[in-house]
Amino acid sequence: MTTLHLARQLRALAIALLVVSAALAQTPPATQPKPVAPRGGVAPPTMPVLQLKPGMQATAWTVFAGHEAEPVPIEIIGVMKNAWGPKQDIILGKMGGKAQRTNVAGGMSGSPVYIDGKLIGAVALRLSVFSPDAICGITPIDLMLEINGFDRTQPNSARTPDKVRASSDAVTVPAAMVGAEPLSLVPIDSPLVLSGFTDATLREFGPMFRQMGISVAQGGAGPVQATASAAIHGSAKPVAGWQRSLNPGEAVSGLLVSGDMSMAGTGTVTYNDGKRVLAFGHPFLSLGPVNMPMAKSEVLMTLASAFQPNKIANATDVVGALKQDRHSGIMGVLGEQAEMVPYKVKIRSFAENGTTVQSGKDLSMQVFVQQKWTPFLMMVALFNGVSQMNEFADDVTYRVSGNLEVEGQSKIALTNIFTQTEMPAPPPMQMAMWWGEKFNRLFANHVRMPRLKSASITLDMLPQRRSMAIESAFAGTSEVDAGADLPLKVFLRPFRGGRLERAITVKIPAGFPRGDHRILLSDADTLNRMQAMAGMTSRFIDLPQTVSLLNQERTNNRMYVSIVQSRPTVYLEDKTLPSLPASVANVMQNGRSANRSLFTIPETATEQASFAFEEAVNGSYSLRIRVN
């Protein structure tokens, strides 16, 4: 055998050994971990952080497509001490296999990591964005198992729509560990997948989601939507076979909206003891105790990207309820039911005559119950329903009629008209904000948490901009006797139309005080403003008073006629006390604590009549009169 031939054989053998070694190094055990039977809260075999050493070979399980989890090799780089807070270490690892191509993708949060069959934690963080190395941070399983021991308070870092700020969950890594440029470990996105939502909705509300530290993506409806029928009755009932769902490594979703529109945050299951499920390895919305439907999820694909890799997934069957949303992960209970609010949106498009319905759409969905998120979700869903219509246009007028049913309270009926104005917000956004504000007032009640049983709204789209302004008014005489009628002529200016004249008669009440007064012709906002302000400034208005104030709101398709006199009005909870003598107001105030003061304005407006129009009425005008 020649020297050249021997050299070739040795080279071939070396190459073969390298190939085999690489294959062995990247071929983890093929058996996916399964849930274990409940054992009184005892965790499956785990490996503490102290036993980890650099170079150890681990295996993560996650879904790249479909429902089945696949193994991903991970090489342990080391342990970052106190990286996520005092006594909260983070394990640093380098992912191989398919993850080398996809990088650490959104939706991998919670992927369980094992060494020799022992659970060490969940993939939850990533380091850098454009790095070719798929470096991940692993939340130790001990931190996740602590979730059940926390109290039932809401963390200050809760991601709610009233806190539009950038996420501050980044963990700084010492520059010496990763090079001269400072980097940070950040939680992997648990993308909020919006199905049935338009691009216009994502453009309008995407910035608000991003400021809450939440990434959103468009998706499609899942193949099974058991939630659509089950949640109509107020709860998301788990499907049959929930006992065998959510194996470690499979995709899991928390549902915020389900039905004709859906909104779900997706991650990966870390641990399942047969009843309780741990996932994500980092917070979802940081809400603390929650009651949110928990569902299986189907991953359509994992999008590889150097900038924003993400799993594209659909939530499918409800199998339980999320109960905790904490710093080190989320916890759900299989078989539990989460309450949701049935929500119906009816949209009708009318012809030019304003009476013939040309087309319509009925939408039915269910909304997650939470004091900050429910109003926001109601608002987003309404805006989205409008933007789906072909009749959507710049100069469309929206006539809305809504009903809210709160347990133990009278039904709330709301009506209004919205059309193009000089305001920067378009009419659909104005309408959505008006609708969401009603839920905010209910859920912001400081005395009692409402139980919202249902919400529905009918929206009529009327062609053209329909608005008119109160321009001026004229009275035949400036002096009138108490108990007499005062005829008026009112002039209104429609949008791009000729001036309209309306003859009305104002009845001066018998016994009305003598002196100088005003006749006020106004829109609804002018009269609603003070009453709404009084309600918002009192922290002690109970739920019945809040419902009463909502039902007292005037609608803006009417012109209101009031007599204004120079006597103070006192607002007490949901009650308006006109022409209250100063001595009585002082006695009432002295009997109340300093932080429960009365809300007072110097004038009293006594509403005498109102006149309906097919347009939105705006503006006001005053006439001075003398009552003899």
Description:
- There is one protein chain.
- By secondary structure, the chain is of the alpha+beta class.
- Among the domains are: 49-149, Trypsin-like serine proteases (Thrombin, subunit H, Beta Barrel), CATH 2.40.10.10; 340-462, Ubiquitin-like (UB roll) (Roll); 467-627, no CATH class.
- The strands form five sheets. Strands 1-2-3-6-5-4 form a six-stranded antiparallel beta barrel. It has a six-stranded antiparallel β-barrel with strand order 12-13-14-17-16-15. Strands 24-34-27-28-32 form a five-stranded mixed beta sheet.
- Mean pLDDT is 83; it is low at 12-29, 165-182 and 222-233.
Spell out the blueprint of helices and strands:
Layout: H1 3-25, E1 57-62, E2 70-80, E3 90-95, H2 99-102, E4 111-115, E5 118-127, E6 135-140, H3 141-145, E7 171-173, H4 175-178, E8 183-187, E9 192-195, H5 199-211, E10 216-219, H6 227-230, E11 235-236, E12 251-259, E13 262-272, E14 276-279, E15 288-303, E16 310-326, E17 329-334, E18 338-350, E19 357-368, H7 373-387, E20 397-406, E21 412-418, H8 427-443, E22 452-462, E23 467-475, E24 479-480, E25 485-494, E26 500-507, E27 515-522, H9 524-537, H10 543-552, E28 558-565, E29 569-572, E30 575-577, H11 582-590, E31 599-601, E32 604-612, E33 616-618, E34 620-627
Helix pairs in contact: 7-8
